[in-house]
Amino acid sequence: MELSREGGDGNTEQPHAIADDVASNHVEEERGEIHLPENEGDTVGNGKTDSKRYGNSDSNVDHEREVNDRSSDIINSADSQKANGTVQELIQQPHSQLPKPEAPPGVNDTCSPPNLSPKMERSVSAPDNFDMPAIGKFIREKSNSFSLAITKRLSSLREGRNNDEDEEAILKPASNVMEFNLVGLKVIKSLKELGKIELKGRISFFSRSNCRDSTAVRSFFRGKNLNFVEINIDVYPTREKELIERTGSGTVPQIFFNEKLIGGLVALNSLRNSGMLEKKMEEMLGIKCPDDAPAPPVYGFDDDEAEESLDEMVAIVRVLRQRLPIQDRLMKMKIVKNCFTGADLVEVLIHHVDCGRKKAIEIGKQLARKHFIHHVFGENEFEDGNHCYRFLEHEPFIPKCHNFRGSVNDSEPKNAATVSQRLTRIMSAILESYASDDRRHLDYVGIRNSEELRRYINLMQDLQRMNLLTLTADEKLAFFLNLHNTMAIHAVIRIGHPGGMIDRRAFFDDFMYVVGGYPYSLSTIRNGILRSNKRAPFSLTKPFSGGDKRLELAFPKVNLLIHFALCNATKSSPVVKFFTAQGVASELRYAAREFFQRDDGMHVDLAKRTVYLSRVIKWYSADFGQEKEIPKWIINYLDATKAGLLTHLLNDGGPINIVYQNFDWSLNS
């Protein structure tokens, strides 16, 4: 079929049309003829459309509705009327899944001039093999993919920023600390509270060690990020008089805003609950602190206490130190350094103290009982003759004793129970200031630079000649438990924590205090005193020999709970605790329960029928007895959950496996 239009001048015009290769519709260009596939059944001519496909030949509206259902894009040739001719309409429908064809550059939307040949030709501006719809589709797909990728990236960044803001909003009410995790670095930044009052004055309060109300006040001020001055009257005993003068009583805590007394914990809670605390702080602390407010403790200086009285034997000791012939001697095939004989001491006393020989011997015995002098082999107290003795400061163990400062403390020895109580209070104050809430982590740098440690070291000099035999059983138990734990902290500060097996000897055996005239290390306290002079793990000898004077202080029976109260500054050891003579028995039971609540202390695996225990129990198995009896003993110190699991294993009659966990020797800092 030939489609043509006759113009008024008899010339043939070519209609404006673009043929596309579309799925099942093939338009062939050949000698000016357009052939439609037979299966379409559409004939264009005389302004009519065949009805085989659309089912309604009389209505062009129905025809267009069916076409729209098949394809979303319709190409309609615009009807154009001229004065002397008509242009017939040509409608070609592309496949519904293909993009709408677009005219290439150079082709106008209007019909060609009437003088063109009947043959349909492409624009000369496009090459013959140029497939414009495919190129357009490719460009659109790539641009859409690129736009989608950019949109997703921007959306993810926006969501990430919103999530961070949400997390920050959640963290702010609960804490004033935000954590930023960077590659290889963790930065912790303290955030300032919104609306925080700028304080020009000073908050101070009086406290005591191991006081629950004082701990609550301290925790409150820390939680509010408020600077405060704590005056612990156990650390600064002379400030107790000032406390009584300002408040009329010695009860603590007592809080001061500048020079004005607020009261104790009850008064603080009342202000906080009524919402008046901030207003009160703004009124009282908005000005500079006056001079009559409680003064901060002065660090580096001791209190102006009454001068300690010297021992009544000091005058005689000073004469002996100057007059005795001190030299190295050979005794029992050994060279004994810095010693003198009993006869020499008696002669000096007779000539310089103006006394008889019998009186001189009695004075020598008094000097030995007060630990000014000792027999070089510990064989006797004091006798006249060729027995050799030496002064305490000349003992070979003195260089290893870290509570000895060049000379012996010549003051009158203090009561052992009083010194023990003072020791407990100072160390409790250190823990309250420099330990975590669970006491499993200590700030050793802060402790090393603290005034509390300086005063503790001064107090330790009182141990040099103290008479420990005056302590009761409970006082002695509490004293040596506390002494062990304080020495462990001091050893970390002075010599560092052991990193290997070789270094542990210096830590446990070589770091010493001179107490009551004799040396004590961490090992001798644990194995010699508390464990009734038993061999340490992996050791072949006992701490004390048969004639050792320290055996008088050793406990006759081992209390198994001590193993859960002695801290050696490692993560797997029990937490640091200090005990009182009045409640040491109950405090030991609590320490054991607290230790077994930890997974590294004890836990049960029902599936494997295994009980996992601390390796401490393995090391000191000589104290705990047969392994099969250990679970029955432990069950008395477990919480309900672990006790139930262990009871189930013990009562079902099956075998129980006991595994000892690895010990973490890293520092508990």
Automatic annotation (TrEMBL):
Coiled coil: none annotated. SUPFAM superfamilies: Thioredoxin-like (SSF52833), Winged helix' DNA-binding domain (SSF46785). This is Glutaredoxin-related. It comes from the Eukaryota. Residues 1-73 are annotated as: Disordered. Residues 26-38, 49-72 have a biased composition (Basic and acidic residues). Residues 320-393 form the DEP domain. Pfam families: DEP, DUF547, Glutaredoxin.
